[in-house]
Design a protein that fits this description.
heterodimer; A: 276 residues; MetI-like fold; 2 domains; 0% strand; globular; B: 279 residues; mainly alpha; 13 helices; transport (chain A); cell membrane (chain A); MetI-like (chain A); MetI-like_sf (chain A)
């Protein structure tokens, strides 16, 4: 009976009410989600600002910068980020460009190799490093050098994807052939033709790797190497407030980097649009 | 000939991945089948699926499955709510940026954020206690606490993964269904639902793998109290080993690789199905 009811009524009456109900439900979901995601951030800020009694001040933050562990490990983590980014770019920019240029049929294979690190949990990778490189010289396995080398591997899934989509967006073959016809050598082509055209993708890959390195705890902790996150957890066993302040700092730096990425991304997009 | 020379260009990359990923992975896999004197054995694997390590696998799988389901359902609801808003609107921009940024909010900072929120001195705990709620039954360091914290990084990942599929459902399909007399419910039951099912299941498996492999958050939060597999491996690595069990960590690691590998293979399979209709 209701199946043959007036189509106008069916289309406008109950359904519109249903939609409005859906929208209210939608906003309710978003509101609860926003609370769940914002409260811990706000709570961290509040917690790191707590002073004696019921006051709030900057004492935890000034104490943080005076901690000897902080002063030692902050530079280590920054150096690790820089080292990882450099190795990543040196390895992956030529490789992805070469694959696009000369081995397009192997793109799928290289892509699958690059997502392999996702299959091997960081704990297992750390265990493997410990087992496999037992006899290696101490300057590799006993220092953050091994961390930078392994972080490059951990970053592969997103460095490949970022550089790959950057390369797909430019007429690489035409550019490289033009440069080669004009007598440019391969290193020259790479540095003066490929890299400038790929700068947004390179910047994104660098930022994503750096943000990952700054927060990485698992491998560093299990290889008994000190970095900022490792120190933060150790400090947290004595003073949760200092540790919370340190984590906020790690978080703020990575978020600032990611924001930088989206700003540069938008500016790049605007430039492309204008030049078209 | 030239093709063969071209392949040489891949050599540095392949060598790097082989040394820094392949060799450690193989070392784990081989070590799982060896005694500490290098003889072949199945004892490590038997120990890994026996007491108490079997329980670690059970707890890990339970935690990962529960947080994957919660994360997937909540993430889908958020994605739905956002996809109902106008294209190019502020809400979309905010949610997509927030998801991208919050997906990075995991590990050590996340653990301390929750300690500051619902830890014993946390602001929410203090507030609830002042309202007269009894918080003594709740521990951030137990199963419930871990679930609460893991959901925090599962939801943004779900939004990032499922949103393209939701956006890919063309309004024309719904209009076509409506023109043929389908109700909204019928559309979702016979068109939208079946289309979204593969990406949803795929995302569910990705989230499962994500939680199963996670170590930093649990380690920073619980100091190794909760018996998850990664925590067990870490404690075996740091020397809490009985004699003759040096390779037990490798056996547990092999188990993790298998489970994560299976889940991610399922994710890849479902993604391929989705790619058929998603541009």
């Amino acid at each position: 009976m209701s199946l043959v009811a007036d189509p106008v009524r069916v289309a406008s009456g109950p359904r519109r009410r249903h939609r409005r109900g859906g929208r209210v439900l939608g906003w309710a979901v978003l509101l609860v989600a926003a609370l769940y995601f914002l409260v811990p951030v706000a709570a961290s800020v509040e917690f790191s600002l707590r002073g004696k009694g019921d006051t709030h001040d900057l004492s935890t933050w000034s104490a943080l910068f005076e901690q000897p562990g902080f002063a030692e490990n902050m530079p280590t983590s920054l150096e690790l980020a820089v080292g990882t980014v450099l190795i990543t770019l040196l390895l992956m920019v030529p490789t992805t460009a070469w694959v696009h240029l000369r081995l397009p049929r192997l793109r799928r294979l290289v892509e699958s190799i690059c997502v392999l690190p996702l299959v091997i949990p960081a704990v297992v990778l750390a265990n493997g490093v410990l087992v496999a490189f037992k006899g290696f010289p101490n300057w590799i396995t006993g220092t953050p050098v091994i961390l930078a080398l392994e972080y490059v591997v951990l970053a592969l899934p997103f460095t490949f994807r970022t550089l790959d989509s950057g390369l797909a967006a430019i007429p690489l073959t035409t550019l490289v052939e033009a440069a080669r016809n004009l007598g440019a050598s391969w290193p020259h082509v790479l540095l003066r033709v490929v890299v400038p055209n790929l700068r947004t993708a390179i910047l994104n890959a660098a930022i994503l790797s750096a943000a990952m390195v700054l927060g990485e705890f698992t491998i560093a902790n299990l290889l008994l190497l000190n970095t900022l996150p490792v120190w933060t957890v150790q400090a947290g066993q004595q003073d949760a407030q200092v540790a919370t302040a340190a984590s906020m700092l790690i978080l703020l730096v990575s978020w600032a980097l990611l924001m930088l990425m989206s700003v540069f991304g938008q500016r790049g997009a605007r430039r492309t649009r204008r030049s078209r | 000939m030239r093709r063969r020379l071209d392949l040489l260009g891949l050599l540095p990359f392949l060598a790097y991945v082989l040394v820094f990923l392949g060799v450690p992975a193989v070392a784990v896999a081989v070590g799982a089948f060896q005694t500490d004197t290098g003889n072949w054995t199945l004892a490590n694997l038997t120990a890994a699926v026996g007491d108490p390590y079997l329980n670690a696998f059970v707890v890990s799988i339970e935690t990962s499955a529960l947080t994957a389901v919660i994360g997937a359902v909540v993430g889908l609801a958020i994605a739905f709510a956002v996809s109902a808003s106008p294209a190019g609107g502020v809400l979309r921009q905010v949610v997509s940026t927030a998801s991208g940024v919050l997906a990075y909010f995991a590990g050590v900072p996340l653990a301390f954020a929750f300690i500051a929120t619902v830890g014993s001195q946390g602001i929410v705990t203090k507030w609830l206690v002042s309202l007269g709620v009894d918080m003594s039954g709740f521990s951030l360091f137990g199963f419930l606490g871990i679930t609460l914290v893991y959901v925090y990084f599962q939801v943004p990942l779900m939004v990032l993964v499922i949103f393209p599929a939701l956006e890919g459902l063309r309004p024309q399909w719904q209009e076509a269904a409506a023109n043929l007399g389908a109700t909204r419910w019928q559309y979702w039951r016979t068109v939208g639902g079946p289309l979204l099912l593969p990406p949803f299941l795929g995302a569910l498996m990705l989230l499962f793998a994500n939680a199963f492999a996670a170590y930093a958050t649990a380690a920073a939060l619980t100091n190794g109290v909760i018996p998850l597999v990664p925590i067990q491996i870490a404690s075996l690595m740091s020397g809490n080993v009985a004699v003759g069990q040096e390779n037990l960590g490798n056996a547990l690691g092999l188990g993790m690789i298998l489970i994560v590998g299976l889940a991610l293979a399922g994710y890849a399979l479902m993604q391929r199905r989705t790619a058929r209709w998603l541009r």
